[in-house]
Amino acid sequence: MDLFFTVVLMISSALMILLVLLHKGRGGGLSDMFGGGVSSSLGGSSVAERNLDRLTVGIGVIWFACVIALGLLLAYQS
Hints:
Elements: H1 2-22, H2 30-33, H3 47-75
Helix pairs in contact: 1-3
């Protein structure tokens, strides 16, 4: 069981890194330093951006659940 949660945690961690890097910069951060603030936004987010947000939150919930499950398994392992 530990191995399953460890593998899921590693996969979800890699996906979280990829999904966060895919997000568009919203200004005021490191993205402005590297030229991300040059493009102008049209005021609304596209359907793709909203779906990317939902996917990122979903993977984040899976990641968090795996961390909690591994912590409980290791704490109560006999």
